[in-house]
C-alpha cells in the first residue's frame, strides 16, 4: 500500500538520529484517512484495506522499505535553551517522492518511546491528534504552508495525562522535519560538520536554487535569507487568518517554512492583538501580536548556528548575518501589508493602505468584533448605500467602523474595478469558515465518546473554507459566552 521510501535521513550519519522501532498498540483502528493526500503521495489505494492500514499507521507493522528513525534536535522553549529534545514520541518512516516529484517525509507521532523520550511515555492522546489533524488540514485549505495530516488511528489504549484519555497516533506528512532546533542541537555540541550536512540537506530539499552558489559563505548566508523570507511570510499569513501558533519555540520553526506542531494553537474569535490561548504560555510570550518579533528572535538563533559556515572569522560572519535578521521586521511589515490589502479587496498598492488596515483593526478592537466575520462581511458593505446590518451587528460599538467605511469606499473607488469584482476578491481572501475553537473542542469531546461524526462534519467544511457552508450546524458563528474556550491545552 505504501509508496517506496527513499531513506535520505536514515542514511545521514548516525549522530543525527536514532534508529528505533514503533511500539505496537493493542487495538489499532483507523478513524481518519486523507485519501486525497494518500493519492498525491503515491499510495496504492486500490490495495487499501482499513485494518491493514490501521496496523501500519499505528506502528504495529513497519511498512516495507521503511527504516524508522527518531531525529535529534534541541530548542529554545519559552526562551530557555534545552540542549536535548529530539523526537520523543515521533518516528520518521522515511521519505517518498510524491506525484509532483516533491520529497515528503512520512512520520508517525505518538508511536511509542524513543531514545529522546526523556520522562515521556512516547504517546499522544486522541484530542491533540484530532486538533492537529483538523487545524493542519484547514491551514492547507487556506493555502498556508503546513505539515499535513494523512491519518489518525486510535490505539485501544489509555494514555495518562491529567486524566486517562484515549490514545492515538497521527501520521504526519512534511516537506521535511528539519527545524531551527535541529541545527541548534549540533551547534551546541560544536559539531560544525553536522551543521554543514544539515544546511546542505536543507538547501537540496527546500532551496535547490541556492546550490550553485560557489562561495560557501554566500550559500549559507543565502540559506538564512531564504528561511527568513519564508518564515516571515508564514507569520504574516497566519496573522491574516487570525491564527495563534501558541508555542513558537525554535524546535517548532521549520526550515522549510511550513507550519509545524499544532499543540495549543487556535484561531482568534474576538479581535484582540494580545490574545493568548495556550495553557502553557503564562506570560503571553507567544500572543498573536508578538509573533513577528518571536520569529525574528528564532531566526537570530538559526543565524547563530550558521556562523561557522558563513565565515571562518566569527566577527565577520556575525556582521554579514546581522542585516538579514534586522531586516525581518521590515520584511514582515511588507508581507503584512500585502495580506491586509488582499483582505480589504485591494489589488493595487498605495502608501496609506497599511494605515487603512490598521484603522479597521482598531475599530474591531474597540467594537469587540469577531475577527473572521468582520472581514467576511466587508463584502456586504462595498456599495456606498449599503446598510450592511450583518457587518454592523458584530461590532458592539460602531462609531469607529462607521467612520472607517467611507474611507475604505473612497480607496476602493481608486481600484477601478466593479463592485462585483471587489466582492469576489473579498470572498476569495476572507474565509467563511475556520476551525473555531469551540467547534474543535466539540468534535474532540464527541470523538472521545467514539462519535466521529462531528469531527468529519467539521473537517468537511474547514477544508472548503471560502464557501459558506450549507449545513444545519452554523460553523461560521462565533462562540456564545458559555462556549468560549479560553485556554487550549497542548496535552502532550
Ligand atoms: N508523551 C511524550 N513522550 C515523549 N516525548 C514527548 C512527549 N510529548 C512531547 N514530547 C517531546 O517533548 C518535546 C516538546 O514537545 P512538543 O509538544 O513541543 O512537541 P510534539 O508535539 O511532540 O512534536 P512536534 O514538534 O514534532 O509536533 C519534543 O521533543 C517531543 O518529542
From TrEMBL:
Keywords: ATP-binding, Magnesium, Manganese, Metal-binding, Nucleotide-binding, Nucleotidyltransferase, Transferase. Its EC number is 2.7.7.-, 2.7.7.108. Mg(2+) binds at residues 252, 261. It catalyses: L-histidyl-[protein] + UTP = N(tele)-(5'-uridylyl)-L-histidyl-[protein] + diphosphate; L-tyrosyl-[protein] + UTP = O-(5'-uridylyl)-L-tyrosyl-[protein] + diphosphate; L-seryl-[protein] + UTP = O-(5'-uridylyl)-L-seryl-[protein] + diphosphate; L-seryl-[protein] + ATP = 3-O-(5'-adenylyl)-L-seryl-[protein] + diphosphate. The active site is at residue 251. One of its GO terms (molecular function) is manganese ion binding. Its cofactor is Mg(2+); Mn(2+). It comes from the Bacteria. ATP binds at residues 86, 88-89, 109, 121-122, 172, 179, 261. Belongs to the SELO family. Nucleotidyltransferase involved in the post-translational modification of proteins. It can catalyze the addition of adenosine monophosphate (AMP) or uridine monophosphate (UMP) to a protein, resulting in modifications known as AMPylation and UMPylation. HAMAP family: SelO (MF_00692). This is Protein nucleotidyltransferase YdiU. It comes from Halomonas caseinilytica.
